[in-house]
Design a protein that fits this description.
The chain has 118 residues and is α/β, with parallel strands linked by helices. Helix 2 packs across helix 3.
């Protein structure tokens, strides 16, 4: 029998071991980052790093949401991508990330690889 929809499903642990109660709310933005302030009604879709970061910080405080900032279309180069990522990291007071440092060969750090030595 399929589970019914409703709040009861969040309390039940499915047989695959995933806990629906442990899921976090993710607030994703695909911003157009502007040099000057955008009208408040345009934020978070469009605005300065400070405007978008302020919006996201408020959402994190009020909703417990986890921000996901997609800079895929906002940056025209790997350098600009990294620069924007650092600006957002600093504006949101997030801890430094080693993956935001460029490597000589690619311009971006490769993702960490799992330890397969055992």
């Amino acid at each position: 029998m399929a589970p019914s929809s409703g709040s009861g499903n969040r309390r039940r642990r499915p047989p695959d071991g995933r806990d629906p109660g442990a899921l976090r709310l993710v607030l994703r933005v695909n911003p157009v980052v502007t040099a000057g302030p955008a009208p408040e009604g345009d934020v978070p879709q469009r605005g300065t790093v400070a405007q978008i970061a302020h919006y996201l910080a408020s959402a994190v405080r009020e909703l417990g949401a986890e921000p996901l900032i997609d800079l895929h279309h906002a940056a025209r180069s790997p350098e600009e991508f990294l620069s924007l990522a650092r600006e957002f990291r600093d504006a949101l007071a997030l801890p430094p990330s080693p993956t935001l440092a460029p490597t000589p060969a690619t311009g971006l750090n490769p993702p960490p690889q799992p330890d397969r030595s055992s």
